[in-house]
């Protein structure tokens, strides 16, 4: 299913290339290129999401799982995809939980693990940001790389392969989450990545940094919507101060700053960045909600 979610837009792109050049030019006179690409993405994802949503709604409404014999492939498929396995209890998880409650915690080991995670995360994000900007803004001959959807596809398919290999080798907790609930964060994750790549065509680097710095505040607000979380006032203040500080630092002399970058900020770029912030803040909050509700491992998420 996930593979088709990525492949359908690519296949549609191949079909779209068969249109005549005249039709392509006429369509771009009416709407900007990024908006046409957005419509294409939403339409092709809808070919997978809408039928799946209708099927799940029908299965739940009719309680179809009670009408088929347990143990068959249909029962297992519906149980995994629609209902989940919330009633299953992993005995090994209970034993680990009991052992962890009685054994003293090794604080030094936890600190080392935290340090490794922080360094690995920062290094990975720095390399990711550098490479994605280099790919999208560099000139290859007389052309620039313009297919954001292909970068998203390669990013996700390689991540899927690596995580599948790790989960296959290392034992994980019993999976209890209905598979359809992953579709929310999967869709928002894909769209946030697409917006991030696409925005590089329309905004300057300072604008990107400011918008990413303001994402902290967006994550807090989305947490109230998705998880009904309550945050102390100082977290709102800290998020606001980060945004203000980065804005002052980068825009202190905007005329000289913009001269150092070939890409100027446009209204289209700002709209795409707003989409990136909304989708990305929803993704992290929804994943956290699944993690807390179903006691999953981070690799399963």
Question: What would you say about this model in short?
Answer:
The chain has 301 residues and is mainly alpha-helical. The chain contains 13 helices and two strands; from the N terminus they run ααααααββααααααα.
What is the average of the pLDDT values?
76
Gap from first CA to last CA:
16 Å
Largest sheet: number of strands, sense, barrel closure: 2 strands, antiparallel
Helix content: over 70%
Give the CA-based shape. globular
SS field, number of helical segments:
13
Question: Which strand order spans the largest sheet, edge to edge or round the barrel?
Answer: 1-2
**Rg over CA atoms:** 23 Å
Q: Note the run of SSEs as H and E.
A: HHHHHHEEHHHHHHH
Structure description:
This protein is mainly α. The protein has helices spanning 2-16, 21-30, 33-62, 73-83, 91-102, 107-137, 148-169, 182-199, 205-213, 215-226, 233-251, 254-259, 267-294, and strands at 139-140, 143-144. Strands 1-2 form a two-stranded antiparallel sheet. Helix 9 (205-213) packs antiparallel against helix 11 (233-251). 17% of the residues are buried.
């Amino acid at each position: 299913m996930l593979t088709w979610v990525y492949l359908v837009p690519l296949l549609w792109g191949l079909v779209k290339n068969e249109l005549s050049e005249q039709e392509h030019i006429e369509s771009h006179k009416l709407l900007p290129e990024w908006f046409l690409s957005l419509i294409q993405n939403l339409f092709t994802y809808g070919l997978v999401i809408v039928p799946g949503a209708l099927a799940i709604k029908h299965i739940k409404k009719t309680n179809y799982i009670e009408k088929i014999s347990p143990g068959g492939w249909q029962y297992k498929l519906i149980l995994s995809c629609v209902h989940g396995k919330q009633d299953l209890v992993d005995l090994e998880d209970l034993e680990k939980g009991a052992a962890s409650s009685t054994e003293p915690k090794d604080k030094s080991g936890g600190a080392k693990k935290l340090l490794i995670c922080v360094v690995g995360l920062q290094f990975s994000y720095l390399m990711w940001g550098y490479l994605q900007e280099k790919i999208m803004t560099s000139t290859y001959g007389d052309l620039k790389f313009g297919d954001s959807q292909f970068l998203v596809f390669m990013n996700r398919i390689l991540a899927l392969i690596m995580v599948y290999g790790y989960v296959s080798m290392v034992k994980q907790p019993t999976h209890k989450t209905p598979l359809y609930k992953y579709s929310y964060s999967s869709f928002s994750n894909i769209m946030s990545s697409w917006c991030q790549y696409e925005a590089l065509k329309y905004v300057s680097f300072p604008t990107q940094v400011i918008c990413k710095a303001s994402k902290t505040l967006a994550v807090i607000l989305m947490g109230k919507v998705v998880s009904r979380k309550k945050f102390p006032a100082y977290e709102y203040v800290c998020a606001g101060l980060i945004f203000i500080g980065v804005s002052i630092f980068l825009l202190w002399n905007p005329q000289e700053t913009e001269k150092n970058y070939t890409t100027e900020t446009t209204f289209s770029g700002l709209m795409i960045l707003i989409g990136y912030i909304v989708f990305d803040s929803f993704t992290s909050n929804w994943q956290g909600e699944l993690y807390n509700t179903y006691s999953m491992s981070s690799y399963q998420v």
